[in-house]
Amino acid sequence: MIQTGNIGYIKQQALKHLQAMTNNPSAMFHDGQLEAILELVANYKQILVVQKTGWGKSAVYFIAYLRSPQANRPTRSGPRRRTNEPSSITRRF
User: Fold this and answer.
1) Long-range contact pairs involving 53-61 (C-beta distance under 8 Å, separation at least 24)
2) How many CB atoms are closer than 10 A to CB 60?
3) Predicted confidence (pLDDT) per residue in 64-81, tens digit
4) How confident is the model over 4-41, as pLDDT tens digits?
5) What is the DSSP string of the chain?
6) Mean pLDDT on 43-69
7) Gap between the Cα atoms of 56 and 59, Å rounded
8) Of 56, 52, 49, which is closest to residue 22 (Cα–Cα)?
């Protein structure tokens, strides 16, 4: 559930990210984009955005990631190790 005190802050930050991504200070969200971001960030929902090409699906996921706790984790630096083990994406469970 979205905490009402955080909604305004999340919206403000999401809009800032959108305007920076597009290099357009007057950029606004398409219908449904901000709602999808709020579901991902504030409600921790899993969603699938299905819209026409050029609507901004990638922007929804990218901005939601920037607002998530995972985006604030330190990243691993240095060369990646090669292993024979398949990635978690292709691993069969």
Assistant:
1) 55/30, 56/29, 56/30, 59/18, 59/21, 59/33, 60/33, 60/36
2) 25
3) 888 766 655 555 554 555
4) 458 888 899 999 999 999 999 999 999 999 999 988 88
5) ---HHHHHHHHHHHHHHHHHHHT-TT--PPTTHHHHHHHHHTS---------TTS-HHHHHHHHHHTSGGGGSPPP-SPPPP-SSPPTTT---
6) 83
7) 5
8) 56
What the block records as the tokens of 23 is 């290099």
Which tokens in the block code for residue 3? 């905490």
The label of the residue with tokens 């607002």 reads 67
Whether residue 63 contacts residue 17, with contact meaning beta carbons closer than 8 Å, is answered with yes
